[in-house]
Prior knowledge:
Number of strands: 3
Helix content: 10-25%
Strand content: 15-25%
Structural class: alpha+beta
Radius of gyration: 13 Å
Low-confidence stretches: none
Order of helices and strands: HEEE
Amino acid sequence: xxxxxxxxxxxxxxxxxxxxxxxxxxxxxxxxxxxxxxxxxxxxxxxxxxxxxxxxxxxxxxxxxxxxxx
Length: 70
């Protein structure tokens, strides 16, 4: 659900490796495209994700960004 990298481990490609592993595993299982929601900008694009649209959760007061990986 959430991914967090401690400050001293950032910039080492850990999150990118995790994203690549998940995408590869889902693709191997025939699950594509993938979607994620986040309030981050300029992060997931580095790993092949594209901004898709803004979405509103049932309990969320504001919209949040949805990304797609094809």
